[in-house]
Amino acid sequence: MSTDPKRWVAGHVAALPKSGIRDFFELVAKMKGQDVISLGVGEPDFVTPWHVREAAIFALERGKTYYTSNLGMIELRRAVSAYVEEHFKVSYRPEDQVLITVGVSEAIDLALRALCNPGDKVMFHQPCYVSYHPSVSLVHAEGIAVPTYAKDNFALTAEALRAAWQPGAKILMLNLPCNPTGGTCNLEQLTKIAEFCREKDLLVMSDEIYSELTFDGVHTSIASLPGMAERTIFLHGFSKAFAMTGWRIGYACGPSVLIDAMMKVHQYTMLCASIVAQEAALEALTRGWDSVLKMREQYHRRRDLIVRRFNEIGLKCHSPRGSFYAFPDIQSTGLTEKEFSFSLLEKEKVAVVPGAAFGENGVGHVRACFATSYEQIIEACDRTERFVQGLRR
Amino acid sequence: MNPVLKLLLEGGSLSTAQMAQVAGLSVSQVEQHLEQLKKDNIFLGWRPVLDLSHEAAAAALVRAVIEVKVTPERGGGFNRFAERIARFDEVESCYLMSGGYDLLVFVKGASLQKVALFVSERLSSIEGVLSTSTHFMLRCYKEQGFLLADNESNSSRLNVAP
């Protein structure tokens, strides 16, 4: 009889590929203390605004250390409902259409678990956030990657969606603006996607975590388009806009039947999100908008800086309309994205993430996060320039 | 807003070359902006922000805030007083205030004695000064936007994250 503990690991978990970021993470971790500039993070460099942290401390002082309603504190759900209505033009009832979750990551897991039967097909645009495909696999559903391209600034097009569609497709996952590409869709593109979803009776899971960090034009939620709120689960959180990644707090809004189904899974697994994080989130929504605008302005200038520098260096880089990621094309160097990233780290101590970590359509690109100081961005670009020039010599 | 002024207001410590990159300008354009701001008397000059609790940084160890009540002059109001007081080398800043007193004066000196002498001999003896109330600063926690005990650390953040 085998004694290998592997025999106890579930087949579908054993079959999950290792995150493409993991190897690279370990390599960078080994270089700690060596003056590495990391553009490899996926979070703001800002610390959570003090008034938000202070509200959490106050909550602890008042003894707020207990469970909340499974759905989350009603005061927070009311604030979420008002915020979403103001910024995204969609109305949700705080009583039964809003669920507070442990980050958007939990919300995605809940939605997939609540809505997918084994074998259901879930579409997502790619390159995409590293957890999308594995989350689909974990519920025994089947993922369909829809490619997005640099020529479209990585916007999802209805044409690509139609080409990838298969019978049995049930859900479309959207992440606009997108991690890692910064791609978004304009109103016309979004309208066509919405039409396609209605035509094929697709449910949309729309992860809009980067929406506040839209630099050009205004962000439109697909849920706000005619006939879409009833077939959309709107997912959002506090990590990016309010610099609250470590608090793990987010929310899902949608038709009450779907929110109720997600709540069932949530109550038996998570019970509720941390009350301290909920109190902090309430403060962020109530008084945090000025901080969001200040941080957005900073990201905006950093984006312009890094995109300009990458293009000057000869790494073709579209200007991401949102998020804090630049996704330059590095093929002109003659290296693969993996070679480029490893070699840049080794020679010049700048960490960027190979694009293929975000799916096969990320090939030929690297993700560079510009949520870091001007000085660091300038230094990282200087080093990258030296590296690229060295290759061409 | 003038892009260079915007960067100055954010309080970073960018060099002219770095400012040029961030604002998308040439170095000479940034220098021109700085010159213009100086000409317009908007940008008055550079000053380091120091933590004066360190001996090495403490050119003037003692700092005080003085509330001054004056009798406004016919014709001159408070301006002549304020300008007169502001000219003393010991005075770092001087403001006209609403409320319980008229002028708020920030003073520095090499010793408590020197600041006390300045108040008793120079400031209170100006004709029209009705009263002064001097508060010595004991300890600084935040200096012009900089936290002195900044124990927020970014060092345990992940270097690579999804």
Structure description:
The complex is a heterodimer of chains A (393) and B (162). With 393 residues, chain A is an alpha/beta fold. Chain A has two domains: 5-48 and 291-392, Aspartate Aminotransferase, domain 1, CATH 3.90.1150.10; 50-288, Type I PLP-dependent aspartate aminotransferase-like (Major domain) (Aspartate Aminotransferase, domain 2), CATH 3.40.640. Chain A has helices at residues 11-14, 20-30, 50-61, 74-88, 103-115, 132-138, 158-164, 187-199, 256-269, 275-287, 289-313, 337-348, 374-392; strands at residues 37-38, 98-101, 121-126, 142-147, 169-175, 203-207, 232-237, 250-253, 325-326, 350-351, 353-354, 366-369. In chain A, the strands form three sheets. In chain A, strands 2-8-7-6-5-3-4 form a seven-stranded mixed sheet, sandwiched between helices. In chain A, α8 links the parallel β5 and β6. The longest helix of chain A has 25 residues, at 289-313. Chain A is globular, with a radius of gyration of 21 Å. With 162 residues, chain B is an alpha+beta fold. Chain B has two domains: 3-39; 55-141, Alpha-Beta Plaits (2-Layer Sandwich). Chain B has helices at 3-9, 16-23, 27-39, 79-86, 112-123; strands at residues 62-70, 91-96, 103-109, 129-136, 142-143, 146-147. In chain B, β5 (142-143) and β6 (146-147) form a beta hairpin. Chain B starts with a helix and ends in a 15-residue tail after the last strand. The A-B interface holds A 19, 21, 24-25, 28-29, 32, 36, 38, 40-43, 45, 47, 129-131, 179, 301, 304-305, 308-309, 351, 353, 373-375, 378 and B 12, 14, 18, 21-24, 152, 154, 157-162.
